Amino acid sequence: MQSNKAGLYTLTVNTPGCGTITSTTLASVTPSLMGAQVLANTPLCAGRSLNLSASIRTNYTYSWTGPNGFTSTLAEPVISNATTLAQGNYTVVFAAPGCGSSNRSISVSVVDPSSVQALNSGPVCVGNAVFFTGRGPAGSTFSWAGPNAFVTNRQNPSLPGVQLIRAGVYTLNVNVPGCGVVSTTTTLVVNNCRENEALQVPTELGLVDAADDNNISKLNPIASDAAMPTNFTILPNPSDGSELNLIWSGLQDTESPLYLSILDFTGKEIYTTLISEGRTVTGDTQYQFRPAVALPKGVYQIRTRCGNLEYNAKWLVQ
Description:
The structure is a single chain. By secondary structure, this protein is mainly β. The protein has 1 helix and 27 strands. It folds into 3 domains: 1-111, Immunoglobulins (Immunoglobulin-like, Sandwich); 113-191, Immunoglobulin-like (Sandwich); 196-317, Sandwich (Immunoglobulin-like).
């Protein structure tokens, strides 16, 4: 039966001896359940209103259920200030006289923009690589911009061999589904490690003989043969970087010069000094100096070289 058949129907009965009797009835036609739909503004940004909608039809009743205990009998219910707890499947049961009932479901996604983050692997030394990390909800797209005309649409870009001009503020724009563009920043610090970590040995500390034309450090005497130390100690270790004591046991005489070098954690040499020209020395040997500049915290390598022989040890500055 079509909806245009709804209305008032009259029955007329003509009975012999009784005349004519009439009776009327109202016939209603409920729209079919076929084609009924549910809609929602998904994906939705957290903090905004979730609008649910079911097809509105005459004589229909509605019964909604959903996440976080949600229920409603409205055709178009609204959840204000929705959180991620509102995410999930929503089902509405349609019911209509003469048509029975039927249900429809829709999945709703609620996106939290607070998860957007921009990170970098710095501080970094000049010449090393830096890695950027972009974070955001699933389905987001990313766009970076930074110093020296840096731009990229990669989520996690990197820069090899960074220079000082790369230091500064990097902006990450994240297009979050349902939320639009969310922006955040991260600051990259680039250090000129060779310049900042260069060490010097002041003659006034008594570690270098100022009367010596060759400016050679004074060592305790030991016995002869061309060999490196059998025992090599750094004290204190770890330290605050204000003073470094090197102690050799069993260092033997050689005609080759003895050098000391300090390397940073990347293996780059940041300081080298001549300890001995190859003089005859006997016994244990100690060399002490104090950096003329503050040494940044980190792990360093102390290297002593004599001809083709060398001995390395790690030094931790805290």
